[in-house]
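Handout for the seminar on molecular recognition.
Each group receives one record of this type.
Step one: identify the two inputs.
Step two: read the structure output and locate the region that could contact NDP.
Step three: write two sentences on what you found, then compare them with the reference statements printed after the record.
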Amino acid sequence: AVKAVDKKAILITGASSGMGFEAAKELASQGHSVYGAARRVERMAQLTEYGVHTIELDVTDEEACKDAVGRVVAERGRIDVLVNNAGYGSYGAIEDVEIDEARRQFDVNVFGLAALTKAALPHMRERRSGTIVNVSSMGGRLVSFMGGWYHATKYAVEALSDALRMEAAEFGIDVVLIEPGGIKTEWADIAADHLAESSKGGAYEQTAVKTAEGMRRQYSGKMMSDPDVVVRAISRAVNAKRPRPR
Ligand code: NDP
């Protein structure tokens, strides 16, 4: 367990499933004060057994994002770490994907992350210390077939993270990007569902259906990692000793 002095107040989104769920569990087990956020609170019930505080949060609701950060600060006196992990992939051919769906993906993956970050920064600046961990993807650097909009969101996450790292450095705030490869979670099924659905009756249907099947096969196979590799990366970012700011 971490020493009392190294105990961090952490808010992590996407804690109802996959890597966010596992990371919340691990960080709480290490002795940190962890707040797990997601829409499906019932899916986070098991986390409370590990001492994780759960917050019902849709990251597309900017006021709710402010409230979530506000709750951590009210209860812990600070927010040391924000882990922006909530996200999803809505795969589909560019011609097929409705602009509303593309926009929604940006709302979750990019603007949700931005809203939480904006809410956390003043508190971190005030204490001249803090870490923002953004879960991007290998797909923040290269694209996969029919994943155009997903990759567009993750490329955006990379750009914002790199820009913020420079801006926030003088306040003792660090920005860490995590770029996982394929991880066995619910992510691939959700992406494949969107892909099959968006192509129905259209020119790309046959290719899309084959691609979706391929994704499901690939993500249930041996090539994909378990969430623990990402949990380790998040844990390293949380527990890293950083030089004091100027
Ligand atoms: P999961 O689908 O298992 O988990 C996604 C989490 O995001 C859920 O807890 C979900 O909670 C949350 N979420 C989705 N939409 C919203 C929303 N509107 N508001 C709040 N929370 C939301 O996937 P992973 O664990 O794999 O994904 C975690 C992150 O890792 C994502 O950003 C994903 O893009 C990224 N990633 C995944 C990879 C993989 O191969 N699995 C590879 C690289 C990156 P709820 O639905 O309850 O709100």
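Reference statements: Residues 4-184+227-234 form a domain with the Rossmann fold fold (CATH 3.40.50.720). The mean pLDDT is 96.
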